[in-house]
Design brief:
The chain has nine helices and two strands; from the N terminus they run ααββααααααα. By secondary structure, it is mainly alpha-helical.
């Protein structure tokens, strides 16, 4: 039986429309799950990356959902460890804990933004030097391999992650505080500006669940 071209085109149009409707529904489901429930399983993280779903905006700076979940992973790993239990910290990520994690991630983005405005350049060599100081403070009996193992065991971070998410932001903050105090004669200049940027931050994430 020969099917006419007009019927073939009608069927194809119907199939394509159905697939597009199904795709739109899938996208909407993932977007709702990410924004309202902070889904962070692999498929949700992948879709958040593909859809470029932000965790927040700080002025023109976008805080990616990936950077938020990276911080979340480190804190989840820490909460599951003996150090957190010894401090009596909760072993689950509550909505409030997730909100605080997002605020810490936003803070990093705000600091990076201020650094660009102040024309502050922090090189990889600067970060490496700061990391070396941290190793020195850990004690002469602590080897780099032992410290790297500690980071992995307690936070699920490798050394490069630690430099990116901890060492570099801390170094920038410390440098900005000194630089802005020198330029303005105000010891609170950096903190005041950072607080203003944090207040300006907006996020589509909801933490009611």
């Amino acid at each position: 039986m020969t099917v006419s071209w007009s019927k073939r085109r009608m069927w194809a149009t119907g199939i394509i429309s159905g697939l597009l409707f199904l795709l739109a529904g899938t996208v909407a489901t993932f977007e709702f799950g990410v924004l309202w429930s902070q889904w962070d399983f692999p498929a949700a993280r992948f879709m958040a990356m593909v859809l470029r779903i932000p965790a927040a905006h700080v002025g023109a700076e976008t805080v990616s959902y990936a950077s938020y979940t990276k911080q979340l992973d480190a804190e989840r790993k820490f909460l599951a460890g003996p150090a957190a239990r010894a401090q009596g910290l909760p072993d689950i990520l509550t909505a409030e804990f997730r909100r605080q994690t997002l605020l810490r991630t936003i803070r990093v983005a705000a600091v990076e933004q201020i650094a660009r405005e102040q024309k502050l350049m922090v090189t990889p060599l600067d970060v490496d030097r700061s990391y070396g100081i941290i190793l020195d403070r850990a004690g002469t009996s602590t080897t780099p391999a032992e410290f790297a193992s500690f980071l992995e065991d307690e936070f699920g971070l490798n050394v490069d992650d630690f430099k990116t998410y901890v060492v570099r932001p801390a170094l920038i903050e410390d440098t900005l505080k000194v630089q802005m105090q020198k330029n303005t004669n105000d010891p609170n200049a950096f903190d005041n500006l950072l607080n203003d940027r944090m207040k300006e931050a907006v996020t589509p994430l909801r933490f009611s669940v």
